[in-house]
Write a structure and sequence with these properties.
2 copies of one chain form a homodimer.
Chain A lengths: L3 H15 L7 H8 L3 H13 L3 E3 L5 E3 L1 H23 L8 H8 L5 H10 L25 E2 L8 E7 L4 H10 L6 E7 L6 E5 L3 E5 L1 H5 L1 E5 L1
Antiparallel strand pairs in A: 1-2, 3-8, 4-5, 4-8, 5-6, 6-7
The structure holds manganese (II) ion (4 copies).
Chain A binds a DNA duplex (30 and 30 nucleotides) through α3.
Chain lengths: 219, 219
Amino acid sequence: MLSLVEENYLKAIYHLSEGGHLQVSTNALAEAVHTKPASVSDMIQKLDRKGVISYTKYQGVKVTDEGKEAALKVIRKHRLWEVFLVKHLNFNWDQVHEVAEQLEHIRSPLLIERLDAFLGHPNVDPHGDPIPDATGAINTKPQKQLQQLSPGSEGVIRAVKDSSPEFLQHMDKLGAYLGAQIKVMDKVAFDSSMKIRIDRATTIFISKEVAQNILVQEN
Amino acid sequence: MLSLVEENYLKAIYHLSEGGHLQVSTNALAEAVHTKPASVSDMIQKLDRKGVISYTKYQGVKVTDEGKEAALKVIRKHRLWEVFLVKHLNFNWDQVHEVAEQLEHIRSPLLIERLDAFLGHPNVDPHGDPIPDATGAINTKPQKQLQQLSPGSEGVIRAVKDSSPEFLQHMDKLGAYLGAQIKVMDKVAFDSSMKIRIDRATTIFISKEVAQNILVQEN
DNA sequence: AATTATTTTTAGATTAATCTAAATTACAGT
DNA sequence: ACTGTAATTTAGATTAATCTAAAAATAATT
Ligand SMILES: [Mn+2]
Ligand SMILES: [Mn+2]
Ligand SMILES: [Mn+2]
Ligand SMILES: [Mn+2]
């Protein structure tokens, strides 16, 4: 049984190790959970004792199979709640994260099972992130950063890498949304910025930073 | 700003003082929040310092206006979530309390406002308890304990005083539900048990204890 | 390889919430 | 008014989560 705080640490470790880094460093984790490295050092020893991560001093941590299962349960809840907020309570996609961060800790197997059914067993959240099923299985489709496409190629926006309100509000301003059809019109070699056409209608310019945070399914 | 634990104490104090007792005793509160009197003694001093209750040593506590406002916000959330669970997630009325006990602490003014609208601004929860509006106003209708009715009188079940799973499951077994039409057929002087007819169809016997926990609106 | 610099861990404190045991106050019945 | 019981409060500890400052280990640079 993990506390709310322990769940947040575990989820952060899981997310940090998703990015390829098998060993998650103390400093990176401190940054992610907004605490100091000293606090992290204490906590990872506790999580190691609980068996959800494996930790060797000065070498960082790694989630165990048991830890992965626990992390995925929290992530599942987080994303299902996000779907509820957007689909049924008319939240915008930039307003859901903070609330879901709280709701993900509600303990009730029945609740999450019923919520999932109520929502029609969605497989992605409002940011395009996949929702693990009750067993923890994730349905992951091949996606590329928009930045990696070359002029002429087309695709559909499927997810965003950055779910911060700032980025999402910028997306809204650009008229870029999940499901939008896009075509790369031009790519500037100098700064990797791009000109893209959305829904065969409007043409916009986006910076490299933006293009890196848009994930597309290529046609 | 109150912590989750402080919110639970405050809500308990509010509920205990609803029963007419203006001053809530340390022991009663300890029982209600499942802690020891020593812990309560500490906590009520803190809540007094925060201005939500007024406390004089050895004399018990009383919620202040500010405290009442805060308590009603938590109660509003608790009851709205209960409605959601029953109406949309198919929970039975005996399954909602524990989960609502957690959900009532989620902090998001937007969430509760939207949830209220989504539910169609209900004014009672699944146990017939009134739901305070956003300003804290409660719409309270005249209700009597079924136990107080005399033979021949009729009415409608509007609420239950006891929301424990045990009592609610017993209600289910009896076929007694909110909105049911009832008529008192007979009342035994010896033990105050009653014979009542539900929906002009089935006749059942109920004990004094049961009759005291059923609230009816008399015709 | 030796010396810095960085990262990580430990030591020692702090705050919130709880407990047990002891001290105090209030109340009730003679 | 006195005395015993019950209720309440205080004292002192404990656990979880955090912090700052200092020590130790690792990594990077001459
Ligand atoms: Mn969280
Ligand atoms: Mn998301
Ligand atoms: Mn609660
Ligand atoms: Mn209720």
